[in-house]
Amino acid sequence: MSKFSLDVLERCVFPFVKTEDPDVLLGATFGEDVALTRIGGDVLVSHVDPIVGAISNIGWLAVHVACNDIATSGVRPRWILLLVLVPTLHDEDLLEQIMRDAGRAAKEIGASIVGGHTGYSSGLSRPLVAVTALATASGRRLVRTAGARIGDHVLITKGIALEGTAILAQDFCDVAERIGLTEQDLEKAKALMGDVSVIPEALVLAEHGATSMHDVTRGGLLETLLETSLLSSVGIELDASLVPIPSVVAQFAEAFQFDPLRMISSGTLAATVPADRLADASDALTKIGVLSAEVGRVIDGAGVHLLRKGEPTHYRHIRCEEDELARLWTVYPRNE
Distance (Å, rounded) from C-alpha 223 to C-alpha 289? Predict the structure, then answer.
């Protein structure tokens, strides 16, 4: 699955979701992870996200991915609404497994599933799960994608292409074995899914002065930083040699011929941190056992200036419709 292009969104979506409600503090905005709504003396933080690009553990993954977006605002997710659609009336075992996995993820996060909808549709070839996650700010400083400032350092956690590589190992295992990856490689890749949550590091970085945070989902790190650049009206320098790529990700990238910088990577958090807060933020992440790397800086200008293998390339255009996992679904279609 991929998104529509920014051009399509601007023509077909955003003109119809404008609101004059004074309690909508942040409505539908491209690149922002959440909506913010004033509720009495508090602020409701909300987000919705679907998962159809995975099959194994889809309920677990959907809950974590949606809750990650809440966490990027610096708030712990609390409530979940769950939509589950399976292909046929007879997919009761699949439905039960999805719900079991979703419940397990909610328990891990400490959130509550408070409602939703389940059903089936013959138009589906594989299950679809969409999660609406919600929380209240409760006085916390809220972080937005649009907050990056010139002089900030760009920090990412764990590594890139985590989720996409794990999905390839789970749902494309036949292809992986055919193109030379071993069972041991598959197990290492599947284990990456265990790092899908960014809630711990997002809460820590919010406390240590992060000016912007964005989880690395469709389009990978490059698209994430392009969105941060656009919303913050700044440029971003990114040195690819500083970006951590787990060895198993590199193996899968070579075998499947994908670009890790453009691969979906829930579990990776991209943040901008002021220079005078960087050391403390990095130390705080180390204390909770989260690896991090400084990979670039926020500069005057626009777009992402990528240095890779000694060659500089300036990316300016949003390509939210492009993602390596979505491309691989067309190269290796699944029939499940």
Answer: 27
How far is it, in rounded angstroms, from Cα 99 to Cα 73? Answer: 27
State how far the Cα of 291 lies from the Cα of 255, in Å rounded to an integer: 26
CATH number, domain containing residue 250: 3.90.650.10
Give me the helices (H) in the chain, please. Answer: 6-12, 58-71, 92-109, 162-171, 173-178, 183-191, 199-207, 220-232, 247-256, 275-287, 324-331
With contact defined as beta carbons under 8 Å apart, do 170 and 57 qualify? yes
Helix (H, G, I), strand (E, B) or coil at 17: coil
Tell me if 255 is assigned to some domain: yes
Which two tokens mark 235? Answer: 């440029």
**Do 102 and 160 fall within a single domain?**
no
* Host domain of residue 41: 6-136
Considering its fold, how many domains does the chain have in total? 2
Contact 14, 128 (CB under 8 A): no
Q: What pLDDT, in 10s, does the model give residues 175-217? A: 999 999 999 999 999 999 999 999 999 999 999 999 999 999 8
Q: Determine if the pTM surpasses 0.85.
A: yes
